[in-house]
Amino acid sequence: MVINDLMVIINVVLCTAIVVRLMFFCKPGARHQCWASWLAYLIVLAYASVPFRFLLDDYSQTHWAVMIINMILCAAVYRAKGNVAIVFAVLRPRR
Fold first, then answer.
1. Are 74 and 14 in contact (CB under 8 A)?
2. CA distance 95 to 81
3. How far apart are CA 56 and CA 3, in angstroms?
4. End-to-end CA, the chain
5. What is the pLDDT of residue 1?
6. Dihedrals φ, ψ of 3, to 5°?
7. Is 10 helix (H, G, I), strand (E, B) or coil?
8. DSSP states of 29-67 as a string?
9. pTM of the shown model
10. What is the pLDDT of residue 89?
C-alpha cells in the first residue's frame, strides 16, 4: 500500500531525527543529571531500533497514532534543544 509506505518512511525519519538530536545534546557548564542521562539513553535505544529495522527490511508498517506521537515528541525534543530534562520536567525529582 502506498499510503502505508509513506507513513513508514515519515516515521523512520521522525525516529532518526529524535535519535540524532538526543545523541548530539551538549550543554557546556550545565549540571549533570543522572536520571536525565539514563532516560535519554533509553529513548535513543528505543527510537534507534526503528531506522535499523527499516534498513534490515523488518519494519514494514506503522499506525497513524504512532506517527502523531512521534511528531509530538520530535517537536518537543527539538524545542528543548535535545535536553531531556526539559522535555520530561514532570519527572524531575523534587527536593
1. yes
2. 25
3. 21
4. 52
5. 44
6. -60, -45
7. helix
8. TPPP-HHHHHHHHHHHHHHHHHHHHHHTT------HHHH
9. 0.87
10. 79
Is 81 strand, coil or helix?
coil
Backbone dihedral region for residue 33 (phi beyond 0: left; psi -120 to 50: alpha; all else: beta): beta
Q: CA-based Rg of the chain, rounded to a whole angstrom?
A: 15
Contacts (Cβ under 8 Å, ≥6 apart) of 72: none
Q: Measured between alpha carbons, how far is residue 38 from residues 53, 56, 85 in Å?
A: 23, 27, 11
pLDDT tens across the length of the chain (95 residues): 445 689 999 999 999 999 999 999 988 877 888 888 999 999 999 999 999 999 998 988 899 999 999 999 999 999 999 999 888 876 666 66
At 47 the pLDDT is 97
Residue with cell 517537536: 75
Which pLDDT score, from 0 to 100, does residue 92 have?
62
